[in-house]
Amino acid sequence: MPCPVSIALPTALRSFAGGASSVSVDADTAGAAIDALLDQHPGLKKHLRAEDGKLRTFINVYLGEDDIRHLQREQTPLKAGDQLLIVPSIAGGRA
């Protein structure tokens, strides 16, 4: 059953969510939470999901300190009060 959870957004994506640093949604899995986020803020879709609907490879989603890729991916269950954190990968630097 869906429960209230929050999704923390990085600064780079906040402009696509009306400037919000965090968005509250009702969801029972990480994937459902992301879908609920995209329903509220459709401008985020192209930044989070690829054309095939999967999370983009450079988008990391954490539940607490755990990357959902190391849990049950988008099927990772959520409970009331959980917080997901979206972190885009950063590349670059100097050798």
Give a structural overview.
By secondary structure, this protein is of the alpha+beta class. Helix content is 20%, strand content 26%. The chain contains three helices and five strands, in the order βαβααβββ. The chain has a five-stranded mixed sheet with strand order 2-1-5-3-4, covered by helices on one side. The longest helix is centred in the middle third of the chain and has 11 residues, at 30-40. It is globular, with a radius of gyration of 13 Å. The chain starts with a strand and ends in a 7-residue tail after the last strand. The model has no long low-confidence stretch (mean pLDDT 94).
Helix and strand arrangement:
Layout: E1 3-8, H1 11-14, E2 22-27, H2 30-40, H3 45-48, E3 59-63, E4 66-67, E5 83-88
Parallel strand pairs: 1-5
Antiparallel strand pairs: 1-2, 3-4, 3-5
Q: What percentage of residues falls in helices of 4 or more residues? A: 10-25%
Q: Number of helix segments?
A: 3
Structural class: alpha+beta
Could you list the spans in which at least 5 consecutive residues all have pLDDT below 50? none
Distance from N terminus to C terminus (CA atoms, Å) equals: 49 Å
**What is the alpha-carbon Rg in Å?**
13 Å
The helix/strand order is EHEHHEEE
Descriptors:
95 residues, alpha+beta, 5-stranded mixed β-sheet, 3 helices, 5 strands, globular
Summarize the structure.
This protein is α+β, with helices and mostly antiparallel strands. It contains three helices and five strands. The longest helix is centred in the middle third of the chain and has 11 residues, at 30-40.
